[in-house]
Design a protein that fits this description.
about 160 residues; mainly beta; eight-stranded antiparallel barrel; 1 helix; globular; disordered N terminus
Length: about 160
């Protein structure tokens, strides 16, 4: 028989949002579609960090996520107190780049996440939200030949 002390908390590696890419589908109450390449993706890494893409660019952040005990919601904090870093490959049109850049700027003020009906919702400090769905690894992140130890190298993530 197991009492209260026997329950196990969900870790990032067991969490249903961990280590998969989430493609942006709604931001600032506007539907965002995919046309060839994802406009923006977010990945909650199993080490607790957050990174992603902005069209064909890689994005690295000082953001960290933590799961709640139930595993379908949690917090986001700027653990490293640093701004995001993005590669500067020219891709997409000006409108797409503006949306992707606005999304990642807003991510710096993200506070919490929740998984509902297979959709990831990110809640920002101003109360606005972004809706994302699970997507395949973006082509810009699939870097064959990079070692696991290179995962923080913007050219070798994925």
């Amino acid at each position: 028989m197991c009492l209260a002390g026997c329950s196990t908390a969900h870790t990032a590696t067991e969490n249903p949002v961990a280590d998969r890419y989430w493609g942006l589908r709604e931001f600032q109450n506007v539907k965002v579609g995919q046309s060839g390449m994802e406009l923006a993706t977010v990945r909650f890494r199993t080490d607790g960090g957050i990174d992603g893409t902005a069209i064909c660019n890689s994005v690295s952040t000082g953001l960290a996520w933590s799961p709640a005990e139930v595993g379908k919601r949690g917090r986001i904090v700027n653990a490293a107190n640093r701004a995001l870093v993005k590669t500067a490959v020219g891709c997409g049109d000006a409108g797409a780049n503006n949306v992707a850049d606005s999304f990642w700027k807003q991510m710096e003020s993200s506070e919490q996440w929740r998984l509902q009906r297979q959709e990831l919702q990110i809640v920002f400090q101003d109360g606005s939200t972004a809706e994302l769905i699970s997507v395949p690894t973006p082509a810009s992140e699939d870097r064959p030949g990079c070692a696991e130890s290179d995962r923080n190298n913007l050219d070798c993530r994925g």
